[in-house]
Design goal:
With 309 residues, the chain is α+β, with helices and mostly antiparallel strands. Helices cover 36% and strands 17% of the residues. It contains 12 helices and 11 strands. The radius of gyration is 19 Å and the shape is globular.
Length: 309
């Protein structure tokens, strides 16, 4: 499609592809700006009911305006091609950065703060990401973090499985508003997602914990040779807490334990709590235990106090 023009958008380069469509860089001739174009898969575009449902979801997502969330501008159709017009975010994604190994603690936690801030803004509008993973997090050259594809997993209802290879970070999507169907990316799925249950913002909180763990350790919290093995690890195994760097603050360890609680009923209730702590670590350091290597999960003072307040 490079060189083609869709409506007033001239395609200039291919940025990538996956289970939720091909993505291109394009020039908006009307507004004179660079944008990202995501072309909808035929399975969505050819089904009037699914296309209408997708357009409804996209309108909700377009209402989300936050500096840590890549914006969706509009849904377009030209020459029989249906596509999303989105903010073009330059820079590497977090998955690319992690190929070079773990990210130092003093860099990881500020990134985590920006991710939590973007998630909080979406959750306050009732929007759940459902597919948060390093590949969906971009870090601009100035250090600004942008979450990509926010809520598109739900908008892509009924899409077939894109790829079964864990190494390619597969997105498993199908009937995303119904119980009994698995969605999300296997290595970052919450236990309730792995069981095919309906999910809410607490699934994003779990995925946030897995992403932060991977930044700090350079390793996935839950691993397996196949998708099934990975899901089994999520359902049955505990992360090796001793893998966390020695310099990881006690409050960050406690935060990870709360995010990676398998029971959504006792998991961290609101990502805003993580945002508050990461923005002001002194709130947690005074009450978090100094040694939480293999100790059973406990709530620090700030985590107990906030829900009561």
């Amino acid at each position: 499609m490079i060189g083609q023009t869709l409506s007033h958008f001239k395609i200039t380069a291919k940025l990538g592809e996956g289970g939720m469509g091909e993505v291109y860089k394009a020039t908006d001739a009307k507004l004179g700006r660079e944008v990202a174009i995501k072309v909808l898969p035929d399975a969505v575009a050819a089904d009037p009911e699914r296309l209408a449902r997708f357009e409804r979801e996209a309108k909700v997502l377009a209402s989300l305006n936050h500096p840590n969330v890549a914006a969706i501008y509009q849904v377009e159709e030209a020459d029989g091609v249906h596509f999303l017009v989105m903010e073009l975010v330059e820079g590497n994604d977090l998955a690319e950065r992690l190929t070079r190994g773990p990210i130092p603690v003093d860099e990881s936690l500020p990134i985590a703060l920006q991710i939590a801030t973007g998630l909080e803004a979406a959750h306050e509008r009732g929007i759940v990401h459902r597919d948060l993973k390093p590949a969906n997090i971009k870090i601009a050259s100035g250090g600004e973090v942008k979450i990509l594809d926010f809520g598109l997993a739900k908008a892509w209802e009924d899409s077939p499985v894109a790829d079964a290879s864990i190494s390619l970070s597969p997105t498993l999507t199908a009937q995303m508003t119904q119980a009994g169907v698995i969605l999300g990316t296997a290595a970052y799925m919450a236990p309730e997602q792995a069981r095919g249950l309906e999910v809410d913002k607490r699934a994003d909180i779990w995925a946030f914990g897995v992403v932060v763990w991977e930044m700090l350790t350079g390793q996935r919290a839950f691993r397996g040779e196949t998708v099934s093995d990975t899901l089994a690890a999520i359902l049955k195994e505990e992360p090796d807490w001793n893998q966390l760097p020695e310099r990881t603050p006690a409050y960050a360890r406690q935060l990870l334990r709360r995010c990676l609680d398998r029971d959504p009923g006792t998991r961290l209730r609101d990502i805003g709590e993580a945002r508050v702590l990461l923005g002001d670590p002194d709130l947690g350091e005074s009450s978090a235990p100094s040694d939480v290597g293999d100790a059973p999960p406990q709530q620090s003072g700030w985590l107990r106090a906030l829900p009561l307040a």
